[in-house]
Design a protein that fits this description.
By secondary structure, this protein is of the alpha/beta class. Helices cover about 35% and strands about 20% of the residues.
Length: about 1050
């Protein structure tokens, strides 16, 4: 009999008969392919046939001879009374729902019929996401877990409640061993219906340290996960937890052993019932307290060394990019985008140090002007510069009437800066050689205009967490019209520079869809009416905020929270409400608060005398309270600047703080409100759309981070994102809106930076930038503008980072003639005509030099030049390839003068003409894109050593094996992160240069360790190394 549920097995004729008898329609099937899932389905089918046959003939003395004969027969010749032949063509049964009322089942990312190991390395499916997906489709669940934490409960709470509401049963076995389990977690579990909990209190007898998550399915497609992860936030997300998935379909006996072991302990007298009764809670708390080590090993001593004297690798990447822009392109007005907490000021100090050393060498001045809008920022910056320069007397502060002794190296507030006085009295417009503008997104304000207009430094450096400014006055015009270098929030989190976050999207109690918007933001007065003036609405919302805060923080007495409000009135209302309606002590602060009030409030928050400060804009930037462990977004903002700054207030690292709780109250939004930018800013760049990321549980988050959206909050976000996708229509609208705001036609650089787009968001097989401009009626359409071949051409060259290649294109466009004998031309030509032999050179020239295409190419080259972030050099004297350059497969093979490059599909082959072993490696291989036999283990061991695996048919004594073993500096390595870009186009390869084997082992495949001639840059190393 077939049961409801999700499946991953071959559909049989018996299945069709049963379904026909019950008059049920199959809800979902798919054809079998020669991929891991399809092969596993066939193998499992054969295994089940054999198992059934063996069971029916176990007393047969001739069983083994018979099996030998049977194994040489086809599947249809195997007699079995319980398994019928598969349908033809082969089809995998994936889901049955006997009623339309049963909702579609959510599936785990991995097929149900394979085993797998989760090691927590970057690029893997996060363990927590797979556990949550298993919960959504299980019939019964068993947890055998030694340590259970409250935040572990919170991460799966929503999915468990849904599971229990549809009739599932949950059984939990745990212990008080070493006091690691949290009483509150089990108390919350005990409140759930259909939940059975048993606890082992005798840790001396049973030192329970087991961890297993079991998901039973009535259809025989169960899963069990056994490994090192407890039910805690860190264990479910940490990169150093290993867990094995055991499939009931794939390994029935191992899965059954896990069930039998669980049942053994479930019935053991060592485990006692826990249902949440008062006396049971008291017993549990007492037992946990007794188990805990009385010694407190947590130190509150802060590391006063904010940085090392040597730049970190991510800082060096930015410094390298600055050097490239200045030396290659003479771009000395640079804008750095670095997430809050990553040390923007440290990068600026190292940059200035390098400049000062060069100026000192040339016996020239190196006067510094550091400009910010708050004294606190200046004080922190001055301390940083003095440390980096090893000069405790460097620089002076000018602020609030303070007069410096010298103006040589000045740290000054914008309010105190008298630009015209500097120009006319104190040295002139060229007096300062190096000017730094901190929080540079303020640069669009009137107070900054004189600085940019009159002062003429040798170097202008802007620092910001994001260049967007909510008053629509762009700052790109002051910084060579673009961002020079950036480290975004996901990068900072991945590098461990910031504290991981647990982000909860809360369904707000109000509807903001009818609130008017002005200049891209909600009307503050109308928000005030909803959040404060409407007593019923305001009370209900504020009461829900209190309940939410109490639910999502594990200990309110240790909570140090910031709540960001609409305006002063709203902040005061929230503080009063908390103080009058709860035991949570609160204060309200704003920009009008005195310095003493701010200092007192900060001290009370740190000391635990209050738990939350409600504020409007005071803690957006510049003020450092690393102890903050909770952030509440109580105001909707369209500004990514404000969102990231406010989030950043809680992301600073601090001893004993393992994560930041983020409570974002998400309401139904107005049509022009944008939820997508905040989530895109939190995610690593992947191949999934934002909608798929949300539906799949945010797989591409930085390590140890977590996002959970409540049901209505998720609906509000998805509805909002759906109306704002990067379709041709929406992108065209954005171009017209930006044109109206800046009062000119936006360049490609301005457009992608304003809307925080990648070139991949613009270039795909359906559009180009010029086609969007024609849609906006900004330029006239010509023969080439909406050419699909043109779209593909732009997409294939939109990754180029070789200055030589770009200069060839730029000079050809300028002169409107091109050297067809040049190797760069061939690389360009094959990007337009894949079949080079049938390409029309004259037609290609007409395409290149047509007005719209030429204009777009020139703009694209400007963007690509600005994106160069690694020092490149020719691979060899006569090669068009650059070391660390990026190329499509066709481009790199054309550069190597390889015959018929478009016909070469293998990842490794020998170029006899050039005597080169060409290795093209995809680092993170997707099960849906590669067969199980081609999931080769290719990764960097360190910055100059690479592990590479041959194809499965290569043996040591073979001609190919010997050629590889005896290679010397003729193995040319190209790598890419993934097979496809986000826009579903094939990703290019980066050239890592020549390598020589230093060791090898095994065969079919052979495992090589390669020594590269040149070091792998940090940019590529982070993607290439097995353990990031």
């Amino acid at each position: 009999m077939l049961h409801n549920g999700i499946y991953d097995r071959l559909l049989t004729l018996a299945d069709l008969n049963d379904l026909e008898e019950e008059k049920i329609t199959i809800k979902e099937t798919k054809s079998v392919r020669a991929d891991p899932e399809g092969i596993s389905s066939i193998v499992n089918f054969i295994k089940n046939i054999l198992r059934s046959y063996i069971n029916e003939h176990e007393d047969d003395k001739n069983l083994l001879p018979s099996l030998y004969k049977i194994l040489n027969q086809t599947i249809r010749e195997l007699p079995s009374s319980t398994i019928s032949a598969p349908v033809n063509p082969l089809t995998i049964l994936q889901e049955i729902r006997k009623s339309e009322l049963i909702p579609t089942y959510s599936r785990p990312s991995l097929p149900l019929n394979i085993n797998q190991i989760f090691t927590g390395v970057n690029g893997e499916i996060p363990f927590i996401n797979e556990i949550k997906a298993e919960i959504r489709s299980a019939d019964n669940i068993c947890f055998f877990i030694s340590f259970i934490k409250y935040y572990g409960f919170l991460q799966i709470e929503k999915d468990l409640k849904d599971f229990l509401d549809r009739g599932g049963n949950l059984t939990i076995l745990t212990s008080t061993y070493i006091g690691a389990t949290e009483s509150r977690a089990l108390e919350e579990f005990s409140k759930l219906k259909n939940t059975h909990i048993k606890i082992c209190y005798d840790s001396k007898k049973v030192r329970m340290h087991a961890k297993a998550f079991i998901f039973k399915r009535n259809n025989g497609c169960g899963s069990a996960y056994v490994g090192s992860s407890n039910l805690s936030r860190s264990a479910l997300n940490s990169g150093l937890e290993w867990n094995i998935k055991i499939s009931e379909l794939y390994d029935f006996f191992l899965y059954q052993k896990v069930l039998n072991s669980f049942d053994f302990f479930l019935n053991s007298p060592d485990f006692e019932e826990f249902s949440g009764k008062v006396e049971e809670i008291e017993k549990l708390r007492h037992a946990l307290q007794e188990e805990k080590n009385p010694k407190n090993n947590i130190t509150n001593t802060q590391n006063t060394t904010f940085f090392n004297i040597k730049p970190y690798d991510y800082q060096q990447e930015i410094l390298d990019k600055l050097a490239i822009q200045r030396t290659l392109y003479n771009r000395n007005k640079n804008l750095i985008v670095a997430a809050t907490g990553t040390g923007k000021t440290v990068i600026a100090a190292f940059d200035y140090l390098r400049f000062k050393q060069q100026q000192d060498k040339n016996k020239q001045t190196s006067r510094l002007l550091f400009v910010a809008h708050r004294k606190e920022i200046l004080e922190q910056a001055l301390q940083t510069f003095r440390y980096i320069l090893r000069n405790p007397n460097f620089g002076e502060i000018c602020c609030s009437g303070e007069k410096p002794i010298s103006r040589e190296n000045l740290f000054i507030t914008i309010q105190s800066l008298d630009v015209r006085n500097i120009c006319t009295v104190n040295g002139g417009a060229n007096f300062y050689d190096f000017i730094i503008v901190d929080e540079a997104h303020h640069g669009g304000a009137d107070s900054y205009q004189d600085l940019f207009k009159y002062l003429k430094p040798k170097i202008l450096l802007g620092l910001t967490a994001t260049p967007e400014r909510n008053d629509d006055r762009q700052i790109f015009q002051y910084f060579d019209n673009g961002v020079t270098a950036a480290i975004r929030l996901p990068q900072a989190l991945e590098k461990g520079l910031l504290c991981p976050f647990a982000y909860f999207g809360i369904s707000d109690t109000v509807d903001l869809s009818s609130i008017a918007m002005k200049n891209g933001e909600y009307d503050t007065k109308q928000l005030e009416k909803v959040f404060v003036d409407d007593s019923k609405s305001a009370f209900y919302r504020a009461d829900n905020i209190i309940k939410t805060l109490l639910h999502y923080v594990d200990n309110i007495e240790k909570t140090k929270a910031l709540g960001f409000c609409v305006n002063i009135k709203h902040a005061q209302y929230m503080a009063n409400f908390f103080n009058q309606n709860s035991d949570i002590k609160a204060l309200a602060l704003n920009s009008r608060s005195s310095s003493q009030e701010r200092a007192n409030a900060q001290k009370e928050l740190i000391d635990g005398k209050i738990s939350i400060i409600f504020t409007v804009d005071l803690y957006n930037e510049g003020v450092d309270i690393p102890q903050v462990n909770t952030v509440l977004f109580l105001r909707p903002t369209n500004s990514l600047t404000i969102f990231l700054q406010q989030l950043g207030r809680g992301l600073r690292l601090y001893p004993g703080k393992d994560h930041l709780v983020v409570l974002d109250f998400i309401a139904k939004a107005a049509r022009n409100f944008n939820y997508s930018s905040r989530f895109q800013a939190l995610l690593n760049k992947g191949t999934k759309s934002l909608q798929d990321e949300i539906k799949d549980g945010f797989i591409n988050l930085p390590p140890n981070c977590f996002i959970e959206l409540q049901k209505e909050a998720m609906k509000n976000v998805l509805d909002n994102i759906k109306s704002a996708q990067n379709t041709n229509k929406n992108l065209t609208t954005k171009i017209m809106q930006l044109r109206d705001q800046i009062e000119k036609v936006p360049s490609l650089q301005e457009f992608i930076e304003y809307y925080q787009l990648d070139l991949g968001d613009i270039y795909n097989n359906n559009r180009s930038f010029s086609s969007l401009l024609t849609n906006a009626l900004i330029i006239k359409e010509d023969f080439y503008t909406n050419s699909k071949q043109g779209f593909q051409f732009f997409q294939k060259i939109s990754h180029i980072n070789s200055q030589r290649f770009l200069s060839f294109i730029k000079e050809s466009l300028l002169e409107e003639q091109i050297d067809i004998t040049n190797q760069f031309f061939k690389m360009l030509f094959i990007s337009y005509y894949r079949d080079e032999k049938n390409g029309d050179i004259e037609a290609f020239k007409r395409f290149l030099f047509s007005k719209n295409i030429k204009d777009e190419l020139q703009q694209l080259i400007a963007v690509l030049e600005n994106n160069i972030d690694v020092p490149l050099k020719p691979l060899t004297t006569n090669s068009p390839l650059d070391l660390y350059g990026t190329y499509t497969r066709d481009q790199l093979l054309s550069a190597l003068d390889y015959d018929n490059p478009t016909t070469q599909v293998k990842g490794h082959f020998y170029d006899k003409k050039n005597n080169i072993n060409i290795l093209m490696v995809t680092l993170h291989k997707n099960l849906n894109e590669y067969s199980e036999n081609t999931l080769y283990e290719d990764y960097a061991i360190d910055n100059q050593t690479f592990h590479w695996q041959t194809s499965n048919n290569v043996k040591i004594e073979s001609k190919e094996g010997q050629r590889l073993i005896n290679s010397k500096n003729n193995m040319l390595l190209f790598v890419r992160d993934k097979k496809y870009n986000k826009n579903k186009t094939r990703a290019p390869y980066a050239c890592l240069g020549f390598a020589t084997p230093i060791s090898y082992e095994g065969e079919s495949p052979i495992n090589f360790k390669l020594k590269l001639q040149n070091e792998i840059p940090a940019k590529y190393l982070s993607k290439s190394i097995l353990y990031n």
